[in-house]
Amino acid sequence: MSTQHYIITGATSGLGYEITKQLYQHNIYLTLIVRDVEKAERLFPKLDYPNITWIACDMTSADDIIALSDQFSMQGKRYHGLIHSAGLGYFKSITNHTHTEMIQTYQVNTLHFVLLLKQLKPYLTHDATIVGISSQAAMATQPHGAHYAASKAAFNHILNALRFEEPSYHILNVMTGPIATPFHIHADPTGQYQQKMSRIMLQPQPLAAKIIQAMYQKKQEFYAPKWMAGALRIYQLAPRLFEKLGKTFFMSKMQ
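^ SDR family NAD(P)-dependent oxidoreductase, sequence as received from the core. Prediction below:
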């Protein structure tokens, strides 16, 4: 029986939910940081998931996150990793975002990850694994998704810097294309983007399995789909030219 214990955000929906279920099948103990405790209880009933516990915390609330330190201190446990799967975004133009939407996007995707890590660091093992679920949106111009892309670009830089600052940690940056999850219902209630991208949408179940494999293989970066990552690397050689030639593609998030 494994004695490893991971902390996961975003575990009650989408990719985070699949990662949680599959890690549990690997006999990993899990502590979930959740906003909706009732949902967590429905998805992971104690009789079926005795090795999963959860702590109530709203990832948009700095006060909630700071308060976690006392809760983890009282538990007196050591944790082998943190998986940050919580994510937020709105497919709107830059100026059409409300103040709350802008702030919460950067909070959940970047700022509060750092705050969370700061609170948890005293309780992580020396060689802890830190997994960040980022996005290939960070690698390209994103009209009507700029705040989301910018928050993920910042998240990438945080993870890369953390790799230098905490060399004993294993840092895995996961950069994906669009995934068929409820994220898109929130990001674009019209459903237009999900319909446009339906042919290339990644399925969360096999994606979760590949991410867990990358964790065990101690990889530093994981891209899916690989062809999209390759195309974006070419784009970065002459971004303004590709933006002119592929304007329709860049405007895919426009409602």
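Strands lie at 5-9, 29-34, 52-56, 79-84, 124-135, 170-176, 221-224.
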